[in-house]
Design goal:
Distance between the termini: 24 Å
Number of helices: 6
Strand order of the largest sheet: 1-2-3-4
Number of strands: 4
Largest sheet: 4 strands, parallel
Structural class: alpha/beta
Shape: globular
Order of helices and strands: HEHEHEHEHH
Length: about 180
């Protein structure tokens, strides 16, 4: 179930509201028959949590993510849930490397990763998507809780196209070599 909110919203009241709603959703998960809640790490953009912001790379944004995520993990512990975060290029966790760093710093078995190749690739990365995706699987494979995908348009923008109508390397994403690290753990 989705518990997504902007975990680093510049207004702390919005982060508290998101955590309150997460608590409500977490309380319903057992009745819904799920033990996984999906989250987005967020952006400093106050109006659109899917739009990047220069301050996402700031130490303050990283600190605020730690604070929000620590509280979210307390909720997950209380309700016996796993939280899945999805790296997205416009968010504070915008790469596999940052996702790995966050997992290593948080050290929680309740924190896992959701992977969507379209959300790991900037338009400039399209020629090297094999390298980017293989790196993501190598870094995160053992900590994946969910995988999904959407097509990427030739201009590098994700979504809005039928599978196969864009430029995502589906053979790589769905192939056994990519999932090797996931199968190890």
């Amino acid at each position: 179930v989705s518990g997504t909110f902007n975990m680093i919203h510049p207004d702390v009241r919005m982060r508290h509201e998101g955590l309150h709603k997460l608590e409500v959703i977490a309380g319903a998960c057992a009745r819904l028959g799920t033990r996984v809640v999906t989250l987005c790490t967020g952006t400093r953009d106050a109006e659109n949590m899917w739009r990047g912001h220069a301050d996402n790379a700031s130490p303050e944004a990283w600190r605020d993510l730690h604070v929000s995520l620590t509280k979210a993990l307390t909720i997950a512990n209380k309700h016996d849930l796993t939280l899945g975060i999805e790296p997205e290029t416009s968010n504070v966790i915008g790469s596999a490397a940052k996702a790995r760093r966050l997992l290593d710093e948080m050290k929680s078995p309740r924190l896992k990763i959701i992977i969507d190749p379209a959300n790991l690739l900037h338009p400039r990365d399209l020629p090297r998507q094999r390298e980017v995706l293989e790196d993501a699987f190598d870094r995160l494979g053992g900590d994946l809780v969910l995988a999904h995908a959407k097509e990427i348009a030739p201009d590098g923008h994700p979504g809005g196209l039928a599978i196969g109508a864009g430029v995502l390397d589906w053979d790589l994403y769905l192939g056994p070599a990519a999932w090797r690290p996931f199968n190890r753990k």
